[in-house]
Amino acid sequence: SSVGEAHEDVQKAMRTLTPTHIVFNGRVGGLTGKNAMSSKVGETVLIVHSQANRDTRPHLIGGHGDYVWT
C-alpha cells in the first residue's frame, strides 16, 4: 500500500477509536523470550487480565491453574 492509503487507515482508526493492534505488557514480545514471566514450583502467582473491548484470552503454557475466577 502507498503512504496515502496507509494514512487513510490511520485516520479511520483514530476517528472511530478502533485499535488495530493488541500488545501485552505494552509492547510486541512483552511476555516472551527474555521478557517471559516465570515462577518456581510452589510460588503463588496472581495474573490480572483486564480487557477493554477485544476478545483476548491468556493461556498458561507449561502449567495449570489451581484457582481460576472469571
Automatic annotation (TrEMBL):
It comes from the Bacteria. Pfam families: Cu-oxidase. Gene3D superfamilies: Cupredoxins - blue copper proteins (2.60.40.420). InterPro entries: Cu-oxidase_2nd, Cupredoxin. Residues 13-64 form the Plastocyanin-like domain. This is Copper-containing nitrite reductase. It comes from Bosea sp. D199b.
